[in-house]
Write a structure and sequence with these properties.
Largest interface: A-B, 91 and 80 residues
Radius of gyration of chain A: 20 Å
Mean pLDDT of chain B: 97
Distance between the termini of chain A: 54 Å
Radius of gyration of chain B: 21 Å
Number of strands of chain A: 18
Number of strands of chain B: 13
Shape of chain B: globular
Oligomer: heterodimer
Strand order of the largest sheet of chain A: 7-11-6-1-4-5-12
Strand order of the largest sheet of chain B: 9-8-7-10-6-1-4-5-11
Number of helices of chain A: 8
Helix content of chain B: 25-40%
Structural class of chain B: alpha/beta
Chain lengths: 311, 249
């Protein structure tokens, strides 16, 4: 029996965290990818090109337009008999749906795995990543979410899997999508960016986040924030990096005015290179930073932007 | 409407946990324990719904060792009306907790169950969704705003790209995100009053639930340690090092 991976997609593109989930799935068996949505042939075509995918299942129906947990769960449960493992990336969609699926299959989900030991055994961070647990599942099926930052994503192109259309599955109408208010940005997504620059409480207000823009523009970076900055209303919730926000592992992470609470470190300490800019030289962020600059960020950021302009 | 709020006793969020030297888990002996912060948000939301006249009774539930009664007392001091302790020394995993909660929901018949979106110890983020599934109820996970209107509830959810608004039929499940509210501190008079509020004690067997863990912990290890790097003296030096040493820009 193979592995079924539920993919996150948007505008005909498979999200990078889902390509990481495919990478994890290939360690477990033959991989089938599930694309569910409404009017999502383009996404199915994109999924078919992912290396490592043997078949794409396409469930195209109005019920799946907004990936609501209740109908999506009914769909996944109907497909479950054909698979030993059901996977999704640890995204808002994966986290919402997979435990619901697991409960109906009488399985204990294995959330946010960072490593595959064998078909039953997985590594996952606990206590905000301050400990790594290796756990072995005795369930007949494994329902898993995958920490994208821990698996290099498969390429977007290179495969050519067949696409099989599957019918929608009936489910009681107990929930209804009303609207989405999504942040509009030309920048890369936090979980997919090669460079991330994040601001913390030290930014003092939302307007000052504009100081990060020229640096983000020059580096092609995504902009993030600490929980303190989000709670203070400087930036929207989807900027939050940390234990309970987004987990990122870019090549370069620049923390500006962030003290470095355990909960924030949990979201970024696997970055390849970490830079910290903070005026408090005792800030815990410096204990994980490869390069630390003790400076007033209001002086350092414009200098940083100017320095990047020099070739 | 009655509201059920499970509250988990976890290692306090300010404690830096240590992995046991024998690799079987993390050190919890002598460590400060507190209510899971997301569950505090759950209790606060329930109390606010009661203050608005939407909720009539709030039942705080905790599961685990006898000391979980303290966590229930905290919830009672914040404004919950009574408690249920499901007492066991077993390692309770989310599937077992969801099944025990389902048994309590069948008995108590609440109109709403509010759970934390994740516990900060195992970081599973699963119990709310699993309980919703077992009950066949709708779920509003990662909620940052909840509005109850008759037999429906509107929930604003924190999702990866921003916010999403959904309408759910009641009864339903909510899991709390950080921005839902800011939990109150219990006042001294309320802490005193909480001592007189009742806590029922039941066992998993009384609820007819098999709580055998499905996941066995093979080992628990320290994560790879990051070494502190160097301090640079200027922005120019920083950029030069990123270009020529780290080669990331």
């Amino acid at each position: 029996m193979g592995v079924l991976v539920l993919l996150d997609h948007e505008a005909g593109i498979i999200k990078q965290p889902s390509r990481s989930a495919i990478a994890a799935a290939t360690k477990l068996g033959e991989v089938h990818a599930l694309v569910a949505g409404h009017g999502v042939q383009a996404a199915a075509a994109a999924a078919a090109k992912l290396p490592g995918v043997a078949k794409v299942l396409l469930a195209d129906a109005p019920d799946y337009a907004h990936a609501m947990a209740e109908p999506m769960t009914a769909l996944l449960v109907s497909l479950a008999p054909g698979y030993s493992h059901l996977l999704a990336a640890t995204t808002a969609i994966g986290k919402n749906i997979m435990p619901r699926v697991a409960a109906l299959l009488d399985c204990q989900p294995i959330s946010d795995i960072s490593g595959v030991v064998d078909a039953d055994t997985f590594v996952r961070p606990i206590y905000a990543g301050n400990a790594m647990a290796t756990v072995k599942s005795s369930d007949a099926k494994k329902v898993i979410t995958v920490r994208a930052a821990s698996f290099d994503p498969v390429a977007a192109e290179g495969g050519s899997a067949p696409i099989e259309a599957i019918a929608a599955v009936a489910s009681p109408e107990i929930s209804r999508f009303i609207s989405a208010e999504l942040s509009k940005s030309e920048r890369p997504e936090l979980t997919a960016a090669r460079v991330v620059i994040s601001g913390g409480r030290g930014m003092q207000n939302g307007d000052n986040f504009a100081l990060l823009d020229p640096i983000a523009d020059a580096l092609g970076a995504a902009v993030g924030a600490s929980r303190a900055a989000v709670d203070a209303g400087f930036v929207p919730n989807d900027y939050q990096v940390g234990q309970t926000g987004k987990i990122v592992a870019p090549d370069l992470y620049i923390a500006v005015g962030i003290s470095g609470a355990i909960q924030h470190l949990a979201g970024m300490k696997d970055s390849k290179v970490i830079v910290a800019i903070n005026k408090d030289e005792e800030a815990p962020i410096f204990s994980v930073a490869d390069y630390g600059l003790v400076a007033d960020l209001f002086v350092a950021l414009p200098e940083f932007a100017a320095e990047l302009k020099k070739a | 409407m009655k509201i059920l709020v499970p509250v988990k006793r976890v290692v306090d969020y300010n404690v830096k946990v240590r992995v046991k030297s024998d690799g079987t888990g993390v050190e919890t002996a002598g460590v400060k324990m507190s209510m899971n912060p997301f569950d505090e948000i759950g209790i606060e939301e329930a109390v606010r719904l009661k203050e608005k006249g939407v909720a009539t009774e709030i039942v705080a539930v905790s599961m685990g060792v006898a000391a979980c009664a303290e966590t229930i007392r905290t919830a009672l001091a914040m404004g919950a009306d009574r408690g249920i302790l499901v007492e066991t020394d077993a390692d309770l995993q989310p599937l077992a907790v969801a099944k025990l909660m389902k048994a309590l929901v069948d008995k108590e018949q609440p109109g709403l169950v509010i759970l934390g979106k994740q516990a900060i110890d195992d970081d599973m983020s699963a119990t709310g969704q699993m309980l919703a599934a077992l009950l066949g109820w709708a779920q509003g996970t990662f909620a940052s705003k909840v509005t109850i209107d008759g037999d429906k509830m509107e929930v604003i959810r924190e999702v990866d790209g921003g916010l999403e608004t959904v309408s759910l039929n009641l009864p339903a499940i909510i899991t709390t995100d950080l921005r839902l509210n800011e939990p109150r501190y219990a006042s001294l008079p309320n802490i005193m009053k909480a001592r007189k509020k009742p806590i029922d004690n039941v066992k998993p067997e009384d609820l007819g639930v098999d709580v055998t863990p499905r996941l066995t912990v093979v080992s628990v290890a320290e994560p790879p340690k990051r070494q502190a790097g160097v301090k640079v003296g200027s922005v120019a030096e920083l950029v030069a090092k990123l270009r020529t040493e780290a080669k990331v820009i």
